[in-house]
Write a structure and sequence with these properties.
The chain is mainly alpha-helical. The chain has helices at about 1-30, 35-70, 70-95, 95-105, 110-145, 155-165, 170-185, 190-210, 215-240, 250-285, 290-305, 310-325, 330-355, 360-365, 375-385, 390-405, 405-435, 440-465, 475-495, 500-520, 525-535.
Length: about 550
């Protein structure tokens, strides 16, 4: 462990030096142009993506250490607790207020102070009145399931981790509210930079927990400490940049916010249910190996999170522009939608193909001596990677619908998708486990996740057609799909014929140039893309 830590800290030092050099060059040479929206969007997405990629890199290093050092069952129990609090309860208590605050402040900057105070008050009320009771119900529910012999109750450490992680919701609520102010001002690079600092603090705290042997409970307390420090940093920034924090428990104003934010919260919550509730079903029917199965299913998602850093960086950067264009001609909004979808698909297809071809290597890198315990994760990752293209698409289409104030359409789509997802998983997962094939249960859950994205797009599509915003993704995806197949054909010989890591490394080096060349030859990179690049560089109007 000590040798690994030395290597890790050397990598972090090199990464920080690179980050510092990049920040210096950016401040030295980048000049904003208010009349150039292409450059502004590029700035917001590129800076946010670069910083969040760095953050994801830190998380990946921690994942590397955790998977190799901790028992898979213990890690599975902690990840179940983290999923419950950090996604389900955090999503509910956030209540869609972040995107609502961003949208309204982008349109009405003078209302920022009032809206900030009211939205923050509503978040705190939801944390106090809903999060703790729901956590208790979940723990009690698993105890009931355990009493019937379908699974095991949550371990003592798993239960304690839930209660500790609940403490992170308060500082995170405040940080999220200030982040919304920066997003509305189209200064996404500021919260992204704070995210980097937070990730560094979290990295150091979790490294200390591992070194001291404090296990999953130490990880939970580390999360509380880091979220509190982050909130203090946002407090200092808010006072300096915007205004002193306000907190308004105005009952009338809160009641007026609820119907506006409720569809957004439901959309976000249903989105979480949409592709992660399967973990709770696996945990509920997993028998004596419930926590191990949960971790075998969690690991592929954690690896895919590396790729999922990109869509939010792009959609958040484009959203203020979409919100402004929503009030004008549909052709302008449709053009912005088409260009962004094209970019997302150009990135999603090679990512999915690469993760499929290299799934075995990716799982081995993280599991190492525990690789045999994680063998089911290889197949799950290879299949689950193909939810990326439609996930990228659906992520953007949600924000388009929010921009044109069709939140209820998103809610309807997610209700349909969530019903499909839950029903299919409740049939497939218990059946596979009852037949003594738990690995097939994980594979079925991965396939259902992909089909759920198809269902979601199928519901979005007619709504967007009615609004004059047809996605037309078949026309946008054929070129990246074809180029990805060509890339796979070039990578496979190296993987199959060359030994071990040499073949994988050669495949990684061969794949991107082949993909880029096929895109160029097929016309996916043409005059329009060149013209956009020139506008970003300021060489054309």
């Amino acid at each position: 462990m000590n040798e690994r830590l030395i290597v890790v800290f050397l990598l972090i030092g090199a990464a920080l030096a690179t980050l510092g050099a990049g920040a210096y060059l950016w401040r030295r040479f980048y000049r904003d142009d208010p009349a150039n929206p292409a450059r502004r969007i590029f700035k917001n997405s590129a800076v946010t993506f670069g910083l969040r990629l760095f953050v994801r890199g830190l998380d990946t290093i921690i994942l590397f250490l955790l998977v190799g050092a901790l028992d898979p069952a213990a890690l599975g129990a902690y990840n179940t607790a983290a999923l419950l609090v950090a996604q389900y309860l955090a999503t509910f208590t956030e209540f869609g207020l972040g995107i609502l605050l961003t949208r309204e402040v982008a349109r009405h900057p003078d209302a920022a102070r009032r809206l900030f105070g009211v939205t923050l008050a509503l978040r705190l009320l939801l944390i106090i009145g809903a999060a703790a009771p729901v956590a208790w119900l979940v723990i009690a529910g698993y105890n009931v399931i355990g009493a019937f012999g379908l699974s095991e109750p949550l371990t003592a450490d798993g239960q304690l981790a839930i209660w500790i992680l609940l403490l992170t919701l308060v500082p995170s609520a405040y940080s999220g509210a200030v982040t919304a102010l920066y997003n509305a001002a189209e200064r996404m690079e500021v919260p992204a930079a704070i995210e980097v600092l937070t990730a560094l603090l979290s990295f150091l705290a979790r490294i200390a927990v591992l070194a001291l042997g404090w296990g999953v409970i130490g990880l939970a307390w580390a999360a509380v400490l880091v979220s509190s420090i982050t909130a203090l940093i946002f407090f200092a920034l808010q006072v300096r940049t915007f205004f002193a924090p306000t907190l308004s428990f105005d009952a009338t104003a809160i009641r007026a916010l609820v119907p506006q934010a409720l569809p957004l919260m439901l959309n976000n919550l249903l989105s979480v249910i949409f592709f992660r509730f399967d973990l709770f079903i696996v945990r509920a029917f997993g028998g004596s190996n419930a926590d191990l199965l949960a971790q075998q299913y969690v690991l592929p998602y954690q690896l895919l999170n590396i790729a999922l850093v990109l869509p939010p960086a792009i959609t958040f950067a484009v959203f203020p522009l979409l919100a402004r264009r929503a009030g004008g001609a549909r052709s302008d909004l449709a053009n912005a939608q088409r260009r962004t979808l094209r970019l997302l698909l150009l990135i999603a297809f090679p990512l999915a193909m690469s993760m499929t071809l290299l799934a075995d290597d990716l799982v081995w890198i993280f599991a190492r001596r525990r690789f045999t315990e994680y063998l089911p994760s290889v197949t799950v990752l290879a299949v689950l990677a193909w939810f990326l293209p439609l996930s990228f698409v659906n992520g953007l289409l949600q924000y388009v619908l929010i921009a044109i104030e069709r939140q209820t359409a998103i809610t309807r789509a997610f209700v349909i998708g969530a019903i499909f997802n839950l029903t299919a998983n409740l049939i497939a997962i218990p059946l596979a486990i009852r037949l003594g094939r738990p690995e097939d249960a994980l594979l079925a859950a991965a396939i259902i996740t992909i089909l759920s994205e198809v269902v979601l797009y199928a519901v979005f599509r007619p709504v967007l057609h009615q609004e004059g915003l047809p996605p037309a993704i078949l026309g946008l995806m054929w070129q990246p799909a074809f180029a990805s197949l060509a890339m796979a054909a070039a990578m496979l010989p190296a993987i199959l014929w060359l030994p071990g890591w040499i073949g994988s490394l050669c495949a990684i080096l061969i794949g991107p140039p082949v993909y880029g060349a096929v895109l160029w030859l097929s016309g996916a990179i043409g005059a329009e893309e060149v013209a956009l690049a020139r506008r970003i560089m300021g060489r054309a109007s």
